Amino acid sequence: MNIGIFGGTFDPVHLAHLLLAEAAREAAALDEIWFMPAYAPPQKPGKVISPPRDRLEMVKLAIAGHVHFRVSKLEIDRQGTSYTVDTLRHIAEQRPDDRLFLLIGGDSLADLLTWRDPAGILDLATIIAVNRGRTPLDVEPVLAALGEQYRERIQLCEMPAVDISATNLRQRTAEGKSIRYQTPRSVELYIDQKRLYRDEQPKPATTQAVP
């Protein structure tokens, strides 16, 4: 099988996440995409994030009904800091006959060299970098640092340009503003029911990468 691994904080999961996953699934003919909520993202040390059970449940609600989407508790069950190379290594050991693909936003491609063992990541999986409409994708800095042998391990694809970020959704929720049509209705209702993000102070919107 061709399995796409899509890691993130998903706090909350939103429509841009789903569009990215679907674009990558179609572009690379993926059989399954595993949404992988991080237990503790390495790029957010000390930052307060929603409990893993809430972020996991929101992903389950968001992908319900899509026959190719799955949710994985691997990083949540493992606890500790969630490093992508460790996750890929574990999956590769458990499923040696499957091909692994790592889904990332195109903006994360420029940060790949700062992740733990980027060459190890590319040895384990083919990266699908999805352009979210912000900036052109450029694989050359990665190849210059890691070697030309990895060129075929990085695929580029496009998705509709949708300017939605989890940070902005948390901010809007904290301000009592609507997040309708930016996240699935089931996730919106879950956020309202659990009163997530109500006590957050507004913060500038940022994009997220998951090393």
TrEMBL record:
Pfam family, one: CTP_transf_like
Keywords: ATP-binding, NAD, Nucleotide-binding, Nucleotidyltransferase, Pyridine nucleotide biosynthesis, Transferase
GO biological process: NAD+ biosynthetic process
EC number: 2.7.7.18
Matching SUPFAM superfamilies: Nucleotidylyl transferase
InterPro entries: Cyt_trans-like, NadD/NMNAT, Rossmann-like_a/b/a_fold
GO function terms (MF aspect): ATP binding; nicotinate-nucleotide adenylyltransferase activity
Recorded metabolic or biological pathway in which this protein acts: Cofactor biosynthesis; NAD(+) biosynthesis; deamido-NAD(+) from nicotinate D-ribonucleotide: step 1/1
Cytidyltransferase-like domain sequence ranges: 5-172
Known catalytic reactions: nicotinate beta-D-ribonucleotide + ATP + H(+) = deamido-NAD(+) + diphosphate
Known function: Catalyzes the reversible adenylation of nicotinate mononucleotide (NaMN) to nicotinic acid adenine dinucleotide (NaAD).
HAMAP family attached to this UniProt entry: NaMN_adenylyltr (MF_00244)
Family to which this protein belongs: Belongs to the NadD family.
UniProt protein name: Probable nicotinate-nucleotide adenylyltransferase
Lineage: Bacteria, Pseudomonadati, Planctomycetota, Planctomycetia, Planctomycetales
Name of the gene: nadD
